[in-house]
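[SOLVED] Need 3D model of a three-part complex

Original post:
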Amino acid sequence: MSRYIATAAIRGANRIVKEADDLFHKTLEELGPDKPIQFPNTAYYLPVILGFTGIEVAKVGDLGPVLEVAKSLLHPVPGEQTWLPYLGETLDCGVATLFAEEAIEGLRFARGEQPERIPGLQLTGTSFTSPDAGEGGNGGYANGPIDDIQLRSWGIQLVDGRMPGFAAIVGAAKSNQAAVQIIRELQQRNILIFLSGNVNGRSIIHQLMEEGVEMGYDTYIVPFGTDTISAIYALGFATRAALTFGGLKGGQFREILLYNKYRTFAFVLALGEVDDLKYATAAGAISYGFPAIADTVIPQILPTGVTTYEHVISMPFDDIEGKDDAEKARRLVQRCLEVRGVKVKITEVPIPVPYGSAFEGERVKRADMRIEFGGKNSRAFEYLKMSPLDEVEDGKIEVVGPGFENIEVGGYMDLGIVVEVAGRKMQEDFEPVLERQIHYFINGASGVQHIGQRDIAWIRISKAATDKGFNLEHFGKILHARFHSDFGTIVDKVQVTIITEPELYAKWLAEARKAYDFRNKRMAEMTDESVDTFYSCILCQSFAPNHVCVISPERLGLCGAYNWLDCKASHQINPTGPNQPIVKGECIDPVKGYFTGVNEYAKQASHGTVEQVSMYSIMENPMTACGCFECIMMLIPEANGFMVVSREDPSMTPTGMTFSTLAGMAGGGLQTPGVMGIGKYFLVSKKFIRADGGFKRIVWMSSFLKESLAEELKAVCEREGDPDLLDKIADERVATTVEELLPFLEEKGHPALTMPPLF
Amino acid sequence: MVKERTIDPAVAEILEIAEAQGISTAFSRAEELKPCPIGHKGACCKLCGMGPCRLTKEGQRGICGATIDTIAARNLARMIAGGASAHSDHGRDMALTLLAAAEGKAPDYQIRDEKKLLEVAHLLGVKTQGRETMEIAKEVAEKSLAQFGQQQGEIIYLHRAPKKRQEIWRKLGIAPRGIDREVVDIMHRTHMGNDQWYESILMAGLRTALADGWGGSMLSTDITDILFGSPVPLMARANMGALSEDEVNIVVHGHEPVLSEMIVVAVNDPEMIEYAKSKGAKGINLSGICCTANETLMRQGVPTVGNFLSQELAMITGAIELMIVDIQCIMQALAPLTQQFHTLLVTTSPKAHVEGATHVEFDEHNALEIAKKIVKMGIDNFPNRRETHIPKQISHLIAGFSHEYINYALGGFYRGSFRPLNDAVIQGRLRGVAGVVGCNNARTCQDYSHDYVVRELIKNDVLVVMTGCGAIACAKSGLLSPEAAELAGPGLREICEAVGIPPVLHVGSCVDNTRILTTLSQMATEGGLGEDIADIPAVGFAPEWMSEKAISIGCYFVASGVYTIFGSESPVANSPIVDRFISEGWEKLVGGKLEFIPDPEETVRKALEHIDKKRAALGLVEYDPTRFGQSGDRLMRQFIEAMEAGLPVSPYSAKIPEPAKK
Amino acid sequence: MERIVLHVPKMYADHHVQAVRNTLLQMDGVEEVIASSAFKRVIVGYDPARLQPSAIEESLRAAGYGPGEEWELPSPPEGKDDNSPWFKLIQRITETNMLDLQMSGDFRKY
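Solution:
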């Protein structure tokens, strides 16, 4: 701290706690103590308060003790002369500020004042928390807190480092140009951006709206609100990341804070003047190890310790070298990353539009579209094949056929993308692994949307992108750059051919389809019995230190992102990395799926917390989970079966818990018989809970799964000899309690009811 | 003349009066009475009736054949034993008070710091779950008392040290077995015709010192905290200006807080204040001298009038109605002064009677009543006050830095740790840390060495912690105020500004040197600075030492791995072998060494050399002050001043325009 | 347009800035508001023909942001008081918390 900051922060803390207390009493009087307080779609109550104190705030009355804790953390303002020490005191006041801010937001939700109304704001992506979003309304609201579903779906990216952390931006930039550039710089590094606060009534949210920057989950930009109080949602997100992925419990404050210090690369960027409450909030963030950087004159705090590097940095915007605001903004962001110690490898992709994972989720609406390939009116395919080294010319990008210059705006055409790679370590088995990356790589360009894969690819390019000069050749540039940077150890040469010429198109499409077919057959043939080696995935151990995924050909990782082939490729790329081969060893029990090698590995890699792992059972030594699972399975004893809820499904389940609540039980690297986190494609595996009766045991399933896996599940039902099975499985539309579930199952004659008892 | 005796203007002022009136003081006696040149260098053996043997010639032996090395070693060991017994006996009294309080036999004492009690209970292996506080306190007291009489094994507090340090002690066989046993061991060992190998004597000396530092003293600090609260920073005043012209001045002097804490209660009693008013005073003004002052300063903010050498001068102000003393460092010279001044000298400890003083024996079972009785005696003495000379000097300081608070200060309730301190040393903002402790010595200019050493150290970015009379010396010269950060080097200034601390931290009385041991242990275990106290770039100083306690403290720091410098001629100077053994010899064995260097400039130079050596051994960056000093409020203050002056400033630029020329 | 500068200590955070702006911008004759929570200062540009400065101050006062008015806050106890956080809350740590060391270290080894 500095005395100036300490004075401001302690003053701010005292005042905001008073405000929270006043609002609490007012609400208590107006709405009563039993009025529920709830952030949308979260199992973590008011997460910061839960994390620090373990108190589960569910109604207005619960806030009383919390505010008492906040008051007990307050200290007097340091004196003008012979002042008393203030660092510890200020940090405590910072935490009191966080309690007060979260309490205020909680109360505002109870009072129907959150999320904040921001006229004209449209969010992209599924924003579960905005009241209008579900009904397809017109927006007009800030996002408010991030829900658990979104947190988890970002999980794997946070874990594997693709998403290094977040920037909590508070205030407004000096100019709109600076605002946009700051955002772009962060997006390029895949850093989540949380927006809040204002300067003289104007927020960066307004600036981005004026500049037409898309905000929402899909673009990694989350507008929380236009005051500093809403910045609390950023710390709620950090707390929940620790609870979700670190397997921590509410009240383990030191673990939660250290977890964030060492594992979440986040920082506060204060744009514009800094007031008492901003200092106080920053003091709270410092306890998490998050430093604060300001673009105005404020006192600096350079000694380290509570944060890994400097605590508070001042970088007056006008004093930054640079020819314009954009360049200054770039330097500012670079300094932020240095201060937090974020090491991000940016791949320079030589295209005329911004590039980064943050643009992966961007949508190109029909009205904004210049051209599309695939979809309803045309066809697009992509095919990656391995070729001998001397047949591939690295960096060669060829467009065969006409470009889209002569197609009218909003039109369409056929497109084929053929990638030929060569490398000494390349194997044919890696072809599909690399081919799937095309989707992510192309999506990374701003103004380009990619959906699907293989011959059902669907690509759109926006008018904005083509105006900047984006053309077909740039697909090749992207793929060449990314394959080299991400898969450099197995790929030595990359050559891309973009095909629009009809004859050649047809020829390559036929060849591609032959390859797809071949791969499908090969995948189908690949069983757990046909290989000697499984793979481990301990990517998440940085988050869940005792969790180990064992990935076999018939059981993919619970995050859905890694199958056996991915792991094999990943091991090739990084032999000492998180995916290690596990020699199966002797099969002790083929039904439950016990293997000596797997047991030994799990015991060692889980640091002794897991003794045995069954690959095919949920009831006996099930595999542990980190927090990134796509689905959670849980026993429903009354129905003699299991339910599967997907993370996209926010509804109540017959277990009496939502996905978010269940996640707390399933995660953290602990074995809980009857509860398991899985990747959704495991549902269609022949080995899916084989020991417990297989797919026929599923009595309830999120409708999202039924729809998104419709084809595959149909095949499973046929394989199981009950083609109508899917219709016998309940979902959230027919049953959200056991009482509703049982009659449904009876009526449909679900097979689980007559199967042997589970215990 | 006076200028050479003290750097404290208040002391100088009174000293002039004393001189004018022909009053004898320690300062004047030091001039009249030169130290015995033979005893001074450790060359005199008076352990048996055949002596004293004075070994002044090369190769000479005593009657029994003792060499100069044996004699020097025995004398030093006995000094350690004397010091260790003083601290430890103090600790014993604290433990007995806790026991009495826990048993309900000392109703005026409570457990003020329950959290500390639980922490200590945990260390001592006392069960806490589901037990009443008093039950826990009783067992803690009993366990602590058992440490004194323990015969075998090792004392529990050693476990607070880093693992590596504990192993060194065990390997060398100097892990103390019991507190009292080690003192007796030395007295026996150094008896005529016993241990006659200097190395063995001196290693046993280290074991006794450890029994003090990691035994008697450490448990004394802990129990004092349990009874009266672990110190937390507070603002206080130091120097004679703390005496009041129109109130009853009561001064506590000595070492134990058991009585003085009760006096604090008594002087705040409205009944007492009323009584004082009835005697014509405006109220009661309490202040302290020596380490009792430090105890009440650390916990209650009671001002300190001065350190050891100020005790007589305080009385010469003529403004003190009553001086209550308990144990240690009480000059017998106070008694004759009461003949000349109206001051009443009250002795309270059965262990410390002074001829000519009034004795009111203190008994913890009846504490407050006795305290009130004594205060009342002081009030009754107010009407006898005659002419007074109260110097105006007063300095403000921040005291109260317990190691627990430092832990808190560096991260708050939720993130408290020593990480920021270690980080600061690792990065070179702090070159190192130093403990500057110890007494006043009438043979040197009062407070000069303390002041010089500390100023030099902080200028070189060394964070200083202080205890005892040294702390009071620097408090008087303003070094203990946070404003003194301006005198520090750029890196230390940044740390001070970040945490809000003075560059010099007052950690307590002389028994509280153990707080420094605990702090160093935590720094070692926190990581980044080696694995042991000896690895940390740290030094210890006792620039103006005089008591045996100082020798014991110095030796337990050495045995804990700290390079410790004493500011005087070596008391073993006549034996170059022993002199070398306690420096180089000990350094090889325990990592710390003891050196006596009279020249303050040289001590600072050697200390910095040592710190840099340790930094290099750890592979830390070379100390370079020019890299630091960019943080802090300075720029912000200029900015706000410019803004308030109406200059065209923008928050987006740190370039502040010059004020327009008029 | 004329300007007055008002000191509004209660405006210590940006949600108060919004409240102050809303109050002032609704007034007839207010043409510009620059509210700074960092320096607790509001600059109001107004048309003197339509509005008196006293009315501006009055409406701020009515909204709870009277110029010069301070928040009344209870003073928390100082460290050495028995009911201070020091005695009620803060632990007495005498040993290094090993958790710190266990949880530190390299993240994202791969």
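Edit: The first strand of chain A starts at residue 123 and ends at 124.
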